[in-house]
Model the fold of this input.
Amino acid sequence: MIEQSNPIELTSSNNGEFHLKGDLNRDTVMKCWQQQKRDIQSCKESGASLNVDFAEIKQVDTAGLAWVMELTKNCKSANVQLQLLNLPEGLIKLANLSNVTSILSIQ
Done:
């Protein structure tokens, strides 16, 4: 039996806070891709950093890792400082296995 993903909920505020809740995986990540350009542009215009809080992420897969890598790249290109907060253990493990911890500034 295939387990259903928990839908991703995105909440962003005017001060560059971006909260994720649910599963960040191949079934849900497209919603994040659509939102990130708007959030990066908003932070660039206001001079704010983009703070992404993963505290309520339940599950993450390689598609979620790919989104975080793209977000990191796009923030760097736009000269927007990115803070990845409360990274889930699963994302850290995937980053270690993929040897991308230095790209994502994960310890």
